[in-house]
Design a protein that fits this description.
The protein has 12 helices and 11 strands. The chain is α/β, with parallel strands linked by helices.
């Protein structure tokens, strides 16, 4: 299906005025409510949109913001757009294209695929210049039809994965590993060579295990041990021990074309909260259980 097929020219505006985010949202809500039957409209709909936005960010670095609301009792998908000649600041991100999407409660896949198509389009500077030059909604729809921007029917891991994830090489020290984990607030990293060939992974438990002597691992409990003295081995050797010495090799991974349910199955089966995404032997992304929850279940 084409992106243009979700659009009505009456729901698209080219705005030259200096407006706030809420004013743009109100303008889009007014246009939608003028010719669509929704369970809630006007001020109530605007409140729902703003409330939903508090739960998850809607602005992207490519200059697009995609507010979204899923409505009970609404069996359709409505997409409204505002092209802004005066960008709006979304907490440090300059937004010149706002796309409001309203769907029913069961259309997560449709919504996510529309978002994927919009994000891809927003990164195409030539296409965006073409759209920004349009003089009205009919012109925007016409240009999108000419571009033949597709909205996929299915949803794959590649649609929700983290692209270019933080990774580490096997020759890195444990201190470097510790620094990366602390800097990015993550509990595990894929391990790759200098050509991004996937080798395995290393996580925080692998790191901490360095500080636990083998004889302690043979005991039933450590209630008697009150100090953290054994962990000093980790502090003393973090500049010497390499990631290659503690990493797990040939870890299970996902393909970019894997389905969401396949990813969930593998995470549960292998008790993993994140999985590397590998294509032709090279690391191309990372998907976490939280990505599935936020981007699919509660999207």
């Amino acid at each position: 299906m084409y992106l243009a097929s979700f659009l009505d020219a009456r729901d698209i505006c080219i705005e030259q005025r200096v407006l706030s985010k809420q004013q743009v949202y109100q303008m889009l809500v007014d246009r939608i409510c003028a010719h669509h039957q929704l369970p809630s409209c006007g001020t109530k709909l605007l409140e729902l949109i703003l409330q939903r936005e508090e739960e998850a960010p809607v602005a992207y670095a490519s200059g697009i913001a995609i507010p979204h609301i899923r409505m009970e009792g609404f069996e359709d998908t409505v997409v409204a757009m505002a092209f802004l000649q005066n960008p709006i600041d979304y907490e440090g991100t300059k937004i010149s294209w706002i796309v409001l999407i309203i769907t029913d409660k069961t259309s997560s896949k449709t919504y996510l695929n529309i978002v994927a198509a919009l994000l891809k389009l927003s990164k195409d500077s030539e296409a965006m210049a073409n759209l920004a030059a349009a003089h009205d909604g009919h012109s925007v729809v016409h240009r999108l039809k000419e571009m033949a921007v597709m909205v996929k029917k299915d949803l794959f891991i590649s649609d929700i994965m983290i692209v270019d994830p933080v990774s580490i090489q096997p020759g890195a020290t444990l201190k470097e590993l510790n620094t990366l984990m602390s800097q990015y607030g993550i509990a595990g990293l894929p391990v790759v060579d200098q050509n991004l060939n996937y080798l395995g992974e290393v996580n925080i438990l692998d790191l901490l295990k360095v500080g636990i002597p083998d004889y302690l691992m043979m005991l039933d409990n450590l209630n008697f041990l009150m100090s953290f003295e054994p962990l000093e081995k980790l502090f003393e050797n973090e500049n010497e021990i390499k990631v290659s010495e503690i990493m797990s090799r040939d870890e299970i991974y996902l393909r970019p074309e894997a389905s969401i349910i396949e990813a969930v199955f593998e995470m549960i089966l292998h008790k993993k909260r994140y999985m590397s995404v590998v294509k032709e032997g090279k690391l191309v992304g990372l998907v976490t259980a939280m990505d599935v929850l936020r981007k699919v279940i509660t999207a």
